[in-house]
Amino acid sequence: MDSATTAQLEKLVRDISGQISDPAHRSVWVLEDGPARKLSERCARSMRDVYLAALNQSIWPHRYVRNRDILALEDQLKLANSRVAVIGAGGLGGTVILLLARIGVGFLTVVDGDVFDETNLNRQALSDTANIGVPKAEEAAKKVREINPAVEVSMFRKKINAANADSILAEMHVVADALDNIPDRMTIGSTAQKLGIPLVHGALAGFDGQVMTIFPEDPGLERIYGETQTPRNDPGRPEAILGVPAPTPSIVATIQAMEVIKILLDRGQLIRNRMLHIDLEGSRFDSFSF
Fold first, then answer.
1. Is there a single domain that holds both residue 101 and residue 206?
2. 36 FRET partner, CA 20 to 30 A, in 7, 117, 172, 233?
3. Are 23 and 66 in contact, with CB atoms under 8 Å apart?
4. DSSP character for 4?
5. Domain span at 173
6. Are residues 28 and 93 in the same domain?
7. Strand partners, 277
8. Do both 58 and 90 map to the same domain?
């Protein structure tokens, strides 16, 4: 059939939805993923459109049922209409991307000009032995579509810089900094500030990590790094000396993803005007106020 109107789509979603008993034995109307995919193809509408047609009628896509006690229906809808840019698809970015896709952020933009190599296999969630040499942004987009076809993902197989940052970050609701060098962090920090977009910063070295959320009206990354910028490939930078073992990017990225979610839903206490320092080996989480 031709592309269905929203009203037609909502009726068709109602027709294929049904009641189930959730883990707490409560009745809930859900839309199963298989029928939703068939409906998407039949009506020439995206899976995101199908999910929105369900959520707008208080019908939960089945994949989100385990969200519903911590997220209201309105929260899930807000996430589905949110736009997040993740700059870097490596150790931090790969995990941030996967978590945001699973929770249902509707639009993800992935920016990374690098390809996977064997040294990524110790920690990067998107890397495996089969995709060595594959562009990270390309693999991220592929994985997102496999995990949650209701998330629309765009990718840029390039480094972000002063010339392209404005066009890449325009219209985003949040930017996640998953980079590995200070100059590029400063570029996205100043661009996000200029465009009025909150930035969630994350960094790590060894078993230590840090997270900070910066709103456009806040002082920027200069609070942490000052005016002197370490060159991108400086052999003396902390991560080059201390390494990047698997647990650290996983936990830093998880906290970053949670900051993104809190910003989008306007809830919870943000790591704002302070920095969270994580010492995994010492089992310490310390907050430093500015």
1. yes
2. 172
3. yes
4. P
5. 82-289
6. no
7. 210, 286
8. no
* Digit-coded pLDDT (tens) for 207-233: 999 999 999 999 989 988 887 666 666
The CA distance from 199 to 35, in Å, is 37
Structure tokens at 265: 């839903």
Task: With CA atoms as reference, report the closest residue to 135 among 112, 119, 153.
Answer: 112
Answer whether residue 262 is part of any domain.
Answer: yes
Each residue's pLDDT tens digit, 60-82: 999 999 999 999 999 999 999 99
CA distance 75 to 68: 9
Rg (CA), the chain: 20
Q: Measure the CA–CA gap between 262 and 256, rounded to whole angstroms.
A: 10
**What is the 8-class DSSP label of residue 177?**
E
Q: Does residue 1 lie in a domain region?
A: no
Tokens of residue 209, six digits? 């990590």
The total of structural domains in the chain comes to: 2
Q: How many CB atoms lie within 10 A of CB 171?
A: 11
| 252 assigned to some structural domain | yes
Is 43 in the same domain as 130?
no
